Amino acid sequence: MLARNKAAGLAQAAGGGGPRLRSPLRRLFVKGTSDGQTESGLKRAHFKEWRLPFWLLAPQLFILLLFFFIPSIRALIQAFQLTDPFGATTQWVGFQNFERLFRSNVYWSSAQVTLIFTIAQNVLTLSLALLLAFASNHILRGRGAYRTVLLLPYAIAPAIAGIMLAFLFNPRVGPVAHMLQGMGLDWDPNRNSWHALALVVMAASWKHICYNYIFLVAALMSVPQSILESAYLDGAGPIQRFLRISLPMIAPTLFFLIVINFVYGLFETFAIVDATTRGGPAGATSILVYKVYQDGFVTLDLGSSAAQSVVLMALALLLTFAQFRFVERRVNYSV
Amino acid sequence: MNERTPVIDALCHMILLVGAALVCLPIYFVFVTGSLSQQEIMRVPMSWLPGSQFFANMQTVLSNANFGRLLLNSFIIATGITVGKLAVSVIAAFAVTYFRFPFRMTAFWLIFMSLMLPIEVRIVPTYESAANVALPLNILGSWLGIKALVDLDWNLVNTYSGLILPLIASATATFLFRQFFLTIPDELCEAARIDGATPWQFFRLILLPLSRSNIVALAIILFLMGWNQYLWPLLLTTEPAMANAVIGLKKLMPQSDSLPTWHLLMNAAFLTMLPPTIVILILQRWFVKGLVDSGK
Amino acid sequence: MRPFYGALAGAGALLLTGISAVQAATEIELWHAMSGALGERVDEVVKKFNDSQKDYVVKSIAKGTYDEVLNGTIAAYRAKRQPEIVQSNERSFLTMVNSGAIVPTNELMAEQGMPLDTSKFIAPVVSYFAINGKLQAMPFNSSTPILFYNRDHFKAAGFDKPAATWQELEPQLDAIKAKGVSKCAMVLPGDYEWSFLENYSAVNDIPYATKRNGMDGLDTSFVFNKGKLVGQVERMKRLVSSGVMQLAGQGIIPIQLFTSGECSTIIASTASHAAVVAAAKFDWSAREIPYEQGVTPKNSVIGGAALWTLKGHTPEKYKAVAAFYDFLAKTDTQVWWHQATGYVPVTTAAYDAAKAQGYYEKNPTREIAVVQLMRGTPSDNSLGFRIGNSNQINVAIMEEVSAAFLGRKPVQQALDDAVSRGNEALRRYEQLNAGKK
Predict the structure, then answer these.
(1) Taking CA atoms, what residue in A is nearest to B9?
(2) HEC profile for C123-148?
(3) Which strand ranges, in their side-by-side order, compose the sheet holding C145-150?
(4) In this structure, is the dihedral angle defined by the CA atoms of residues B244, B245, B248 and B249, taken in order, positive or negative?
(5) Which member of A95, A306, C94, C333 lies 3.0 to 4.6 Å from A78 by CB, making a disulfide possible if both were Cys?
(6) DSSP letters spanning B243-265
(7) Are A40 and B204 in contact (CB under 8 A)?
(8) Residue-by-residue DSSP string for C170-219
(9) Would you say A121 and A261 are in contact if contact means Cβ atoms under 8 Å apart?
(10) How far B210 CA sits from the closest chain A CA (Å)?
(11) Residues of A with Cβ-Cβ distance to C252 under 8 angstroms
């Protein structure tokens, strides 16, 4: 029971200031851990009234109606249409856009790339953030200074971050690329799809490590000192203590970050992809969300783009429930 | 615990130093490139050391690209989004967690759904809505055959409200507040009710002060998000004086046919990065505290 | 939230731009996609027009890349807030013509009593932007690819200059690399579909798509997966795999690798002159793009963009638009634009005027593009391209061809896939626009 409360608390630490906008998965996850109420998401001690909450909700619902629901429905309707970008001609085509999508090899290979990309990005981001969090948890001096520096990528627009990294890793002019080539690696993301994928993964992680790091630092700080001390008295070294005690205790935060990283990789990386590789070479880094953007905004294939966003939304929902049902419970038990 | 672990200590510092270096390297290169001259940037490979043109480039950027004005716009937009979204969200979260009323779950799910579709995917229809906020009334009018409604026109193009409002239309902050409210002990509300406090008094005197560090952490996040907006302001502004700094940046992006002016682009990128970086530097303590506190 | 805030901000914006001073002038907007130095040239030509008369004021507004301008225009048109004039690239021709959103330039000018005589324009420009001899858009920044080369590198490798045909040029490029003169004998441009495939088929007089590359109807199909074009892509692949031809990639632009002296040649738009003149610190020159041995080369095709007039404005505004186009077509304007930007003059009169000034004696490479565009009589294969869903198809072709470069599929297979993806998009366009041009 104590462990469960702890888990809720930590997950809360995660939820308390999360900047990942539009991340449905995490909301559900967090909700799952903290809802002990009869009616979901309602405080046991609550007010019974309808006039005040109506006025409290009105501004948000009004803005959502105008700038979210009406435009979204109009966008989703396009998934069933063949339409001229200017709106001159529109034909209802039923599921033709979806059929075209599922018949297309390009789409399936994009799905495959997305899978590799999100997993690689997740592993890299989380392991580096964990390493950094362990290190800054261990040392006593200079903690604040390191933390400040490590937070910086958060302040930088994804487009700018992408341009910087594309430049640094450019096989012709980039200083980092020259270093890699000097080390005997024939680095060329223009001609090697694995290199291109690695570049996109690095760029996406570079921007996102700080986010993971902050949550891990916060979680590590709330591991009870008394447990760590008794382990120390039992003769466990810092690394052992970290692996045997801290890590299992922050499992909910780890799990939460895994979900967040998936959401980030799936939905929020198109600016980075656009700036570093433009989905190339030969579609090697064209992840699903980049294709939605490219087909909708660059090539004006509005029907296909809308159909793709329907698929992506369904995927998000599916992922949400799968995570919530299977993985999350197990993590809580294991604590 | 008085543990001595010199090897691991050294290792940890090394890990952190390498991490810090990796973070700083790209930023350092923005600075270096922003300080080179047109001839210097055309050389391959480019220099590792800063040149002497930083302030000259900055002057060009500020005067030619009207960057001062653009930075001011970025500030107004980011602040507007931050304040607007916080205000709207905190009261909505209060409503869904502390009140039992008909259609509570409906309201909750309506808000929840707005997390599902990023603005980039629905950007053209969103533009149509912002270009004429009365659009739903127009449609209604044409169904009912009311001429007055059809002709309504309320334009937000080239206005700060147009740049701000549609970006407020997402429920992230509402959910974060909701999660936080759910961890607040029920006793607080019970005690307040026994003392005869109205819901509004409870909200103002107890809930808001408790949420202070969450609000700060969220404010930083929203400010940064607002500052870094690109696609929406690009579409919505036709008046160059209404654009923001990131748009100004992209205008300096070299294209295939023209002379590459990376030095100006990177200089402007450096200027654009500066305010959010300062925000992080100054408010970093608060930011982390907001996250840690909410766990207690 | 309240309307008066919007009004307030709008009023503020108006004050800031300070247009209130010229009360009587009719103001029109021009949305364009030029950034950097070219963006400044657009502002300049607009200013020249504004200073030349008192009745009209054109406001030039940079709206991002070509894609972003087009999307901005679509959004604005759907919301009835479109500008009067929008710059759109040559690839979007059919999208614009069939949008139902434009006023054909020919009609506009005739109505305003300032008819444009299409015979005064150079042929590839007219054939691209006119339907049955009637201009649909106002030609603005027209370019065509030429071959820039580093003369120092060629001399060091023992050559006078690049050869005219691919058969002779290829060994030269190999030699430059083999002799260690340069690690990169050629850099592949970002728009190679235009310069290496479309222009290649025009110059060598081979069909790219049926129905005269789409000029004769929407039921056109691609045929570039046979004959010489397969050989061209095979050649490109050979050059890329041997490292003779390098890919620039993101983070820099290809022309930068040429001007920095890293790469010895580039086939790039003639508008790259501005960048080359400003940055190349070596002896450089240019010549026509290479063609196949034994072929009498035809004209190349244009790229760049044209100005489109959008529907839904008052007659007053269209008067202003017509006056602006009339100003653009003037010989003086064209000569200035040609020399300031590197784009080609769109009228023969402007070309003759520049020649009479002795401009080409001092700047011989500036003439190459014009001469190449006017070379021979345009054939069915060199009139231009009229392809629907062209943006989609362009992306698909580049994706397939680069898959061949990467060795992911054989060249023939890649081109077959490109053709079938392209044709699918063409059929969809035909389905949607049945009965249109």
Answers:
(1) A139
(2) HHHHHHHEECCEECCEEEEEECEEEE
(3) C245-247, C184-188, C263-269, C145-150, C284-287
(4) negative
(5) A306
(6) --HHHHHHHTS--TTS---HHHH
(7) no
(8) HHHHHHHHHTTS-SEEEEE-TTHIIIIIIHHHHHTT--SBHHHHTTT-S-
(9) yes
(10) 12
(11) 167, 170, 172-173
Give the separation between CA C147 and CA C266, rounded to whole angstroms.
Answer: 6
Q: C126: closest CA among C437, C335, C378, C421?
A: C378
Q: Is the dihedral of CA A300, A306, A311, A314 positive or negative?
A: positive
With 0-12 / 13-18 / 19 or more C-beta atoms within 10 angstroms meaning exposed / middle / buried, residue C119 is: exposed
Q: pTM of the full predicted structure?
A: 0.82
| Phi then psi dihedrals of residue A268, to 5 deg | -120, 20
Selected for mutation to probe chain A from B42, B182, B207, B253 (highest A CB count within 10 Å) is B182
Query: CA nearest C243 in A: which residue?
Result: A191
CA of B270 to nearest chain C CA: how many angstroms apart?
17
Q: Which of C242, C270, C243 lies closest to C255 in space, CA to CA?
A: C270
Q: Strand A47-48 to strand A81-83: parallel, antiparallel, or no bridges (unpaired)?
A: unpaired
User: CA angle, A247 as apex, A245 and A253 as ends, to 5°?
Assistant: 130
B163 closest CA partner among B101, B239, B69, B266? B239
Burial class (CB in 10 A: 0-12, 13-18, 19+), C437: middle
**HSE-up of residue A25 (Cα within 13 Å, Cβ side):** 27
CB-CB neighbours of A215 under 10 Å: 27
Query: Per residue in B220-229, is it b (16+ CB within 10 Å) or e — as a string?
Result: bbbbbbbbbb
- A17 has a chain B CB within 8 A of its CB: yes
- Kindly state the helix (H) or strand (E) to which residue C247 belongs, with its residue range: strand C245-247
Is the four-CA dihedral B105, B107, B109, B111 of positive or negative sign? negative
Please name the member of C250, C391, C408 whose beta carbon is closest to the beta carbon of A299. C391
- Side-chain-side CA neighbours of B186 within 13 Å: the count stands at 11
Structure-block tokens of residue B195 = 């003392």
User: Which residue, C185, C240, C214, is CA-closest to C380?
Assistant: C214
Residue A16 has pLDDT above 70, yes or no: no
Q: Chain centroid to CA C396: how far? A: 19
Q: How far is B192 from chain C (nearest CA, A)?
A: 34
CA dihedral B117, B120, B122, B123 (to 10 degrees): 150
Per-residue pLDDT of chain B (296 residues; tens, 9 = 90+): 667 778 888 888 999 999 999 888 888 888 888 888 877 776 666 677 888 888 888 888 887 767 888 889 999 999 999 999 999 999 999 998 888 888 888 888 788 777 666 676 677 778 878 877 877 788 788 888 877 777 777 788 888 888 898 888 877 788 778 877 877 888 888 888 888 888 888 999 888 988 887 788 788 878 888 888 877 887 788 777 888 888 887 777 666 555 667 788 888 888 888 888 888 888 777 776 666 554 43
Q: Which two tokens stand for residue B244?
A: 């923001």
- Give the residue from C252, C266, C276, C277 with the most B CB atoms within 10 Å of its CB, the best one to mutate: C252
Chain C interface, best mutation among A109, A169, A191, A290, by max C CB count within 10 A: A191
- Tracing tokens 């993964």 back to the chain, one arrives at A201
Within 8 A of A275 by CB-CB distance, chain B residues are none
Task: Identify all chain C residues contacting B239, using CB atoms and an 8 Å cutoff.
Answer: 13, 16-17, 61
